[in-house]
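Table S7 (text form). Paired inputs.
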Amino acid sequence: MNRIVILGAGESGAGAAVLAKVKGFDTFVSDTSAIKDKYKELLNQYGITWEEGHHTEDLILNADEIIKSPGIPNDAPIILKLKEKGIPVVSEIEFAGRYTNAKMICITGSNGKTTTTSLIYHIFKSAGLNVGLAGNIGNSLALQVATEQHDYYIIELSSFQLDNMYKFRANIAVLMNITPDHLDRYDHCMQKYIDAKFRITQNQTPEDAFIFWNDDPIIKKELAKHGIKAHLYPFAAMKEDNAIAYVEDGEMEINAPIAFNMEQEKLALRGTHNLYNSLAAGISANLAGIQKECIRKALADFKGVEHRLEKVATVRGIEFINDSKATNVNSCWYALQSMQTKVVLILGGKDKGNDYTEIENLVREKCSALVYLGLHNEKLHDFFDRFGLPVADVNTGMKDAVDAAYHLAQKGETVLLSPCCASFDLFKSYEDRGDQFKACVRAL
């Protein structure tokens, strides 16, 4: 019996462990952190041995294959030891893909992937298809493959997940954009991050589809380098020679594989970035053969994604918006670009090698004040203080940040939490950060 060891026992790892056990492998799970009770219960339910708080190397280095949580870097000491011994390390998605013949619609990008993934899932589900949601959102793909059967999976893929995928094939691959992100994980080398994103196209055949933003300068430059075999479906905001989907005269147009149109004003999602999300989702649904009226209805009634430009409340004429999912600078750019009033911007957290130059002009134009929220705000002071805006420095938590923003904002302005940074200095996750923001706003 082959031995599979899973490193990390979150949603991804616990699901991979269940699939490995169901498929008859000698299965062991190891996590250096405490394992959440719900995952312990799941592992115990399937009789899977696990440990928490440490890695016992003797129980790991005897594996035939390792399934690694995407949160564990490839240069972690235990991973380096596994490489020395020649033990293969794969992702949960790679492992799960071996055991299903479902069609895979996979979405990546520096920004927009969660909204696009959720929107595609909403369209497929609304059309009555047997579809699962997996990857960075939804339930573990491996757990669904082990316990359910779907005809389609809509999968959000981070660069970390793509790093350890080798034979997995995306029937439809969507690349929203590429801007600097997670460079601390890629030796501060942009090309390594770009190469990770383009792994979504590996193993595609001429029968498959590659959907991408036609105006992204990095994607344009890299397309020829990667030998993509899939049929190309580029989209753009306006009509261009190459683009098969765009907006013209207030109509969203998709010209292939089946002609489709919809009035832009009827789209549920507003703003330029959401137009891209809607175009990518519309092409994906079109490729799957979903009826036009189903696509139009779903694009019109989609409710959006929590923590992404989520309206929370209006307090004494000040609107509060939760954009905690903006964990990089480009995402904050889109948020600021969509604002119609002056903004008190709350930003900061665990910096991932950010270059704030991208939002400099928008901050000067749209912001009336700034709130720095993080344990180490020196980089924010160095870049933004010269703008001459009122600034509050907060390293104690969300309540003080919301109170500071509330006092800085004038009636008719917007308080926007769009941090540009990861959340792990003061919060458990971007969801925790957003939930705390909403709770503090509602308590004002």
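Next pair, protein 2 of 2.
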Amino acid sequence: MSKVIAIVSFKLPQQQTLEQATATFQSTAPKYLNLPGLLRKNYFLTGDGMRAGGVYVWESRQAAERMYTPEWKAFVRGKYGNEPEIVYVDTPVLVDNEQGRIANL
């Protein structure tokens, strides 16, 4: 069974600099540390500073769906002012240039 990536994004209520977004991301990052089923999360900010989100790598779709509850969506809405959009994709193969390997997931 391949891993699942969830691409979560949301519009920001106002433009943010990378420094502003980084500070906000740092404030929420601890809640994802050691979260069951979550292998990795990368936060992102678009070049225009108007959309942000995260790319999450999950052990399974079920693990991801346990995270994205109505309460979590309300947290995002409260923190960023807009409803998050979630796109799920399967990720069967990984190219890892840091480790110099290709792996089936």
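The radius of gyration is 14 Å.
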